[in-house]
Write a structure and sequence with these properties.
homodimer, Urease, subunit C, domain 1, TIM Barrel, four-stranded parallel beta sheet, globular, Amidohydro-rel (chains A, B)
């Protein structure tokens, strides 16, 4: 089966940042097989089954990489907004009571629906019951890294770390060689995993070098204080000592870093994911993205869970990524728009070690792409496509989403999920949450 | 003519923050005449001409107030993105060469199109040839304050301040008693107007207390240095000395303020407009919005020109307003979502002294309202409508926009402007800009 996208403004995000203002892209099966400028060539052997789509000048670009997410948590979206102690007051009690395979499935489906509609084609997730997340992504057609979380705060799916590791092993077995889903191990954070278990994860990881490790790192004052009080050093230094700083470590957040931390991260070639809306909304601070990138580290962009950042597309994150870097740098020069688009695509893919498969439009890669409409007045004039994508485009401008050659959305209609049922299922869970929150409020200190 | 909106999630933004999760709104002529919870009453005397619209549970709320804009500048959108010296390198030379009534008309029409599509019903504008802006807004149906700019940097429409004042007088005459358009005088900024002219504006303003004064204030280091070097005091203190700090002064930006400045502004009861995306993108800093509001000042939200902030709707500004306050405060508590929606509606209207006419859904006010779709998965679950509006809603969720009882958009189609022609006209000007920019690049130092 051949699909030919013609009359497209092709933004490739390849190494030369090639742009074809009028160009074409060819997809055969799961693979992007060719692309170029000008009118599309006549395709030999395409046969009667070839689909030719005139994009009417719209942007065709790589699908975006949401490099840090907790898909199941979309059912918490906006819960306890602006409440400083909501984690202990609402979220942990609700998680203990309600997190189940069914809840994870419902939340993940809502998130998959939103991401496909907003142009995300790859997501890195960490939460509980991750086989459910993997199954939802498989059905919805999303490329995903699914990480079993390990934590010591009585999490919903393991009583102790042995049980947690058993879940990891189950996940790794289930998705070995899967075309879309990559299993992952996800120690929650240094303070909530502990040094001994971090060391055990590092040992396990040395035997499974192809399994990405995801961890929240240098995110909160709580964590920084824990590292200082228990080890007399920075949280990065503790993580290094545990043996976790490796090229397969995906470090989410990375707010509280000094130059020595960044040097250490650079020496060990870890990967970073910035989550600007989540961090901004929590008032936690700004990640030094420019310094990290200048130190040679790939920095992807994550939405975090919808409880923290509310939306799961990447367009909503792009202006914050840019503004935060410019505010840190004190001028409009830092982190130009093209670099922000890079972070949302090929650099995010590199942060997840998926850059050989996805993140740019190049012949031989998987066909993970989106079409972005230029119909809105916001998108005009367009002096620079990267500026338009970062500062003017909305997730709702995405009209079509393809992963591995499969259309997940056409003309704004998601094809792989029942939108009405998915939203209704999530709202049903939210009604239970509301009842329980009212009860929790009556017993609040 | 009666219009009845039924089955609506009515977010009134009135003094009690009344919300009717299932309610109705009645409009007669230009006026919102009644609203309430539950099913809509049978309207006596509505006659056969009454239009009844079932909103299907969508949010109906006040149209938003964009309290600081340069509508004509949409033709500069994204021009010289990330270039630190773009003002002197591109923008001022382009303005000198190309700003004309026709260019102001074309840019303003593009901006009106975008704002109507994004749920803005009131805009405060300042630029040149403002009679064109007023005329565009009248035709498009937007409520507007149009401010003739006065500046000393060889602006495009006046050779000296006498000519500038003549333009102000013309504007005031033209729109006296106009139902939608309020004329305004707009000294550009302290450093670019000068103390003598600021004093002259203050004298003129004392004779015209109903004419709002708009000014960029405490925006840049350049300005702060000017005040210190020429007057040995803060830019707010200089402005006070010139006699401009009055309740009809609308101060845009307000980044570089100390506590004494805020006290002075509070004593004189000025109005403030924060422009978070514009300021963030320029790396200029964060306005102390919480301090200003705690000092009793109304703080509205502005997009600034599309050259600075790229988009002109307010939804794009809401998350940045919130995040910036939380980052300044270091927790998720500051400036709750409800206050951000307040700033975008009734408080913005108060900052423009238009709060008796617009900014909330209350019987007797002008019918300036929007309908916001809840169809997107982003909008679910909805624990709190203000959280959903601030952190999840997009300008593209606005399906219908009404100003003074007139539908400017229905079902996402703007009725008062020809979208295709408006976009084409703006792009035609952008082509001239591109040619001139290429020439300027060849002579750049």
């Amino acid at each position: 089966m051949t699909t030919l996208l013609t009359n497209a403004f092709v933004v490739t995000m390849d190494g030369d940042l090639t742009v074809h203002e009028r160009g074409w892209v060819q997809v055969d099966g799961t693979t992007l097989t060719a692309l170029g400028p000008g009118p599309a060539p006549v395709i030999a052997g395409a046969g009667a089954g070839a689909e030719v789509i005139d994009c009417g000048g719209d942007i065709v670009m790589p699908g975006m990489v949401n490099a840090h997410c907790h898909m199941a948590m979309s059912v918490f979206r906006g819960l306890g907004e602006d409440v400083d102690d909501r984690l202990y007051r609402y979220i942990l009690p609700l998680e203990r009571k309600f997190v189940s395979p069914a809840m994870v499935r419902a939340g993940s489906a809502l998130s998959a629906l939103e991401m496909i509609a907003g142009g995300v084609t790859t997501v890195a997730d960490m939460y509980y019951f991750e086989t459910e997340v993997g199954d939802v992504c498989t059905e919805a057609g999303l490329r995903a890294i699914v990480g079993q979380t390990l934590a010591d705060f009585d999490p919903p799916d393991h009583k102790d770390f042995d049980e947690g590791f058993a879940r990891v092993e189950e996940l790794v077995d289930r998705y070995a060689g899967h075309p879309l889903v990559t299993p992952s191990i996800a120690p929650h954070a240094p303070y909530s995993t502990g040094f001994e278990t971090m060391s055990r994860v590092a040992e396990w990881s040395a035997e499974h070098p192809d399994v990405p490790v995801q961890m929240h790192l240098a995110e909160s004052t709580l964590e920084v204080n824990w590292a200082r009080d228990t080890h007399g050093k920075s949280t990065i230094a503790v993580t290094a000592e545990a043996g976790l700083l490796k090229p397969n470590l995906i470090c989410a957040h990375c707010l509280q870093l000094d130059d020595a931390d960044i040097r250490m991260m650079s020496e060990h070639q870890v990967c970073v994911v910035t989550n600007p809306r989540s961090n901004g909304k929590a008032g936690r601070g700004i990640s030094p993205v420019e310094k990290l990138r200048n130190a040679g580290l790939p920095v992807g962009i994550g939405s975090d869970g919808a409880m923290s950042g509310n939306t799961l597309d990447l367009f909503s994150q792009l202006a914050p990524v840019s503004m935060f870097a410019k505010l840190l740098g004190g001028s409009r020069k830092p982190l130009p728009a093209v670099d922000v688009v890079r972070m949302a695509s090929i650099e995010g893919a590199r942060a997840l070690s998926l850059n050989l498969k996805t993140g740019s439009l190049e012949a031989g890669k998987q066909a993970d792409l989106i079409r972005v409409s230029l119909a809105a007045p916001r998108m005009h004039p367009m002096y620079d496509p990267y500026s338009a994508l970062v500062f003017a485009a909305l997730p709702s401008d995405v009209t079509d989403t393809m992963v591995a050659g499969r259309w997940l959305m056409r003309d704004r209609k998601v094809l792989t999920l029942d939108a009405t049922k998915t939203i209704a299922d999530a709202n049903q869970i939210a009604r239970q949450f509301k009842t329980e929150m009212a009860r929790l409020d009556t017993i609040a200190p």
